[in-house]
Amino acid sequence: MDPEPAIGHYPFHLSVQFALSDRHLPSRQQLRAWASKALLGPVQAVLRIVDEEEGLSLNQGFRSRAYATNVLTFPYGLDDTGSLSGDIALCWPIVRREACAQGKTLKAHCAHLVVHGMLHLQGLDHIKSSEAAEMEALETQILSEMGFPNPYIVNDQGI
Question: Is 140 a member of any domain?
Answer without folding.
Answer: yes
